[in-house]
Amino acid sequence: MAAVMGKAGDQRMCNPVSDAELERRWRAARAYMRSTGIDALVMQNSNDFLGGYVRWFTGWPATHAYPRAVLFPLEGLMTTVGQGNFGFEATFDGKGPQPNYGIGRRLGTPSFVSAHYTGDYDAELIAHEITKAGCKTVAYVSPASMYYTFGMKVKELAKGVTFTDATDAIDRIKAIKSAEEIDFIRRVAAMQDEVFIKLATHIRPGMRDFEVAAHAQYIGQLLGSEQGIFLAGSAAPGKPVEQQERWQMGREIRKGDAYRQLVENNGPSGYYCELGRIFVLGKASQEQKDAVAKAVEAQHETWKRVKPGADPRELHAAHNEYMRRNGLAEDKRLYAHGQGYDLVERPLIRQDETMKIEQNMLLVCHPGFSTATVAGGICDNVLVTASGVEFLHKTPQAIIEID
After folding, report:
1. Secondary structure, 3-state, 383-401
2. What average pLDDT does the segment 175-196 reach?
């Protein structure tokens, strides 16, 4: 499986969605806007982990904490504001190719969150565009994703404009994947399966945790991933193996150890899936096998209840009842959720979610637990079908033993 480059005319883009897919999203968003009297949507993202709205509308991700804002009008072409020179402006006819398809103007300003006095710069440009367009009602999309000064200053500067919030409506549209998106998502899951196949031949005693995780990232990049999060860790027999961040991956792996890898990278076109497994460099103890089997069982207890119309609050309650029944700690954070352009996307499978499960949603479930001597965990994606779920990953749901 090799990375596929963009179509003719935009060879720098890796795996762009089609123009038709972008148009589908715009039609759905504008149908909602028209029905609710919204003249324009405003969004701002600053990363490609939990910042998928800008990419969903434009095909251009926000990255590296540099903000990228979008003004999406009910009629006409979008305006974007991002990193650039003072006074930067580029105009387009919106006909493409990507990443300028549907874009009328790109504005730039050199703002940095680490230089607080630049915090108004992006807002000033967007507010000017709102006023110039004569918008009366503007809706924010995911104001929680915006830098505080941006959201505050746009409202302050756009005089006479009524501001509302369109996030719930856009979230539901975004959560239900199209046929084209599902095709990309299948490729992401296949990429992650291949990463684990190659890890099994790479890991060996004497390596440090970060060396194994770095190889996972490297293989993913060669197979079409753009970036992601790689949590990993190792532990001696009789100790729980936990996933750690990069700055905690200095432990040397020894014969008999367990090594745990979670791959949370995006793949072709920027969609996220997650795959997590435990390796043992030798033969796994029965206690370790039983712990992983219990996590697999917990995951399947959720999957058997997932179908269109299912209530995440009920799924979460059933999961915690299973955990209590088996003497395990309840989940009080997030053990399952949607995915897409965001690593964590609605619906969240927990007690505070209001969005119901629908067909063609992408879900991930990663139940886990730790005791004083062992940890159990598993992580896989499914696609919601008309009657249940389709497993997307093919990696066996068991400990991977390395001779």
Report:
1. EECCCCEEECCCCCCCCEE
2. 98
